[in-house]
Amino acid sequence: MKLRSLTVAGYRSLKSIRMEIGDVNVFVGDNGVGKSNLYRALHLAQSAAEGTFAREIAAEGGMAAVLWTGTRKKGRPVRLSIAVELIYEDTALGWRYTIDAGLTPPMGAGFPFEPQIKEERLSIDQGRRVVDVMKRAGQGLSYRDADGRMQEYPVRLLSSETGLAALGGSGLHAEAAIVRDTLARFRFYHGFRSDAGSPLRAASLAVTAPMLDMDGSNLAAVMATLKHIRGDTVDLDRAVADALKGAWLDIPLPDREARFGVVFPQFPQRGFSAAELSDGQIRFLGLAAALLAYRIPPFIALNEPEASLHPSMLSPLADMIARAAKDAQIWVVTHAPELADLITDRTGVRAKTVIRQEDGSTWIESMRLTGQLPDEADEMDDDDA
To answer: Which of 51, 130, 300, 324 is deepest in the core (most CB within 10 A)?
Structure first.
């Protein structure tokens, strides 16, 4: 199942925007135009599925800090709204999940600056008609059972709890579980720490790791899994050699913990531990593990992956992104036009230029209100003809 579109309204610089999502999505633009807000809005949709929506909003400064920053029409409720459409590839069957949140909780139902979920809706698009299978209004949640009748969810939700996480994890509703689990498998990598205490530099518990954790804390275990479980590090070895001037990884068989080192050709007598690597080197290895892991997640989002990387690392990074795009949808936010051009060279997908409109809202240059760019709309018109 793939992500087909993202719609956001009332979030930071996103006044109201809908965009079609392709297999590879690259966003470039000046500082402060709102590129990262698009990324964060999609991450919030995932957090709603995982049940961490309120926590993510709190980490951003609270509900009052994340609402649309421009002028609003009087008399309308102040809301943040996010919707995602998911579709099975090569079919007309899809789902749409929408969450609306605002301020002012009912007495005793939440803290003043928590997001208060006003409405949620999960609909299934069967090609000929759209059917609501989950509805939430305030603290009440209802769902459509196997006989097509709406039933009340047996637990009254707190105002900051998401219905998708509750119903999807309850075992009561297969469609909600599918959408919840699909979104939960998305991976967002937005700024690996590279300081001395970074999780990337730490040893990992010796547990097989099919994919990289979002904070990179199981990096050594991901590498050990590739080396000693799959027995294939060809892509990883090529990426490391290209980015680190002929260096290679030393990945010993783990005992209680997994560790790794890097051997540089000018110092072949010993390996350099993760603690000894530069910021750019350790960040590149984190990106390599995210993009070349034993199991690739269905959706990988990278926010400014070029940060701290030497310019010579951008080409190997683009190679890894193109390799991962064979198995996953890719979303890249970058300040580096050079990286965007390299990804275009390898995938044929042009970057989307993010701009600020006169009212301060974020938009995609040349994008139509339907969420399509001119070339995408023209291709659909040709297909219809």
So the answer is: 300
Per residue in 287-301, pLDDT tens? 999 999 999 999 999
Cα–Cα distance list, 64 to 76, 78, 306 (Å): 16, 10, 31
Cβ partners under 8 Å of residue 154, min gap 6: none
What CA–CA distance (Å, rounded) separates 155 from 167?
A: 10
* H-run or E-run covering 36: helix 35-50
Mean pLDDT of the chain: 92
Same structural domain for residues 157 and 256?
no
Nearest-CA neighbor of 19 among 100, 92, 83? 83
- Contact criterion met (CB below 8 Å) for 142 and 153: yes
**54 within some domain:** yes
Same domain for 111 and 195?
Answer: no
Same domain, 137 and 259: no
At 46 the three-state DSSP class reads: helix
Q: Do 300 and 189 contact (CB within 8 A), yes or no?
A: yes
Domain stop point among 140, 164, 185: 185
